[in-house]
Design a protein that fits this description.
about 325 residues, Ubiquitin-like (UB roll), 7 helices, Rossmann fold, alpha/beta, 3 domains, Elongation Factor Tu (Ef-tu), domain 3, binds flavin-adenine dinucleotide, single chain, globular
Amino acid sequence: MPTVVYGGQSYECGEQSVLDCLTAQGVPIPSSCRSGSCQTCLMRAIKGSVPEKAKAGLKPTLAAQNYFLPCSCYPEENIEIVLPAEGMGKIEATVASVEYLNADILGIKLHPSKPLTYKAGQFINFFRDAATARSYSLASVPALDHELYLNVRKVPSGLVSGWIFSNLKAGDTVTISEAAGDCFYVPGKPGQNILLIGTGSGLAPLYGIIRDALLNGHTGQISLYHGSYNADGFYLVKELQKLEQYHSNFRYTPCVSEGEAQKDYAQGMVLDIALADNPDLSGWRIFLCGNPDMVNAAKRETFFAGASMNDIYADPF
Ligand SMILES: Cc1cc2nc3c(=O)[nH]c(=O)nc-3n(C[C@H](O)[C@H](O)[C@H](O)COP(=O)(O)OP(=O)(O)OC[C@H]3O[C@@H](n4cnc5c(N)ncnc54)[C@H](O)[C@@H]3O)c2cc1C
């Protein structure tokens, strides 16, 4: 009979679901519907694999990371499982370079001390000290880039971003966590159109996701809209324009929300411009990153324009 290892203990579930088995033994697992709908009991298998039925209804990005619903899971082999927040180990990394991408955003390259498994667009936690950490998204692509690449925006009086701007330099050793998050590209639907909308350093995960999709031979349209108050807020412009030259299915639209209209930029709010250009989003995959007000409005508006909730990936920050 397969065993389930959780928190260092082994359990034999017999005919019971993993959730029923654990809770019957007094193990506290958050849960609500217990029938595969609410996803409250979400867990992750770190050893062994779970039956496909236990992943039904999950976003492809969660299923790809071995997340599953213990309420619908009747294991066929031995598995070891954790709650979603557990299992993010810490590692050391050396700062390879720090450079200004614009007046408010630093590009930081890190060499992890051991190989880090991640997908472009996920985030790592960056520790200023043992008790103070913040999340930063990965703009790098494992198959293309030797280093981890972060874009950090300076937040006024920010504990961690302020410290990074004042102190971080090439050669420093820092502590980061393993990668997490479900905002990344999953291959498998190469012809699906993709819309990406970001503001400020919300470009970081999107830059990684775009290059990952192109590397995987994505053939559907890939449209990026990057919003800023003024033209000084844009960065990675040359890199994005170069991608546009080499890939006819990629389109980059920088959008300025304030000041005079200029020929190089679309004028207006980034979400309004993206939706005006793409009014029917049925069947599209959507990535939204950056300003929380923009991201939350964009989640709603892209859903109303036809995108399925399971195809909308968002990191508000
Ligand atoms: C999944 C995820 C991914 C992220 N990826 C990135 C990334 O790639 N690049 C990046 O620059 N940031 C990213 N962030 C945001 C980052 O984790 C920090 O929240 C940010 O750097 C501020 O931290 P701080 O310690 O400097 O500021 P804090 O000390 O936490 O905050 C200082 C003050 O600023 C306010 N504040 C905090 N955040 C913001 C904000 N975003 N805008 C305006 N005011 C704010 C606070 O309310 C507080 O008053 C991400 C966050 C998440 C959750």
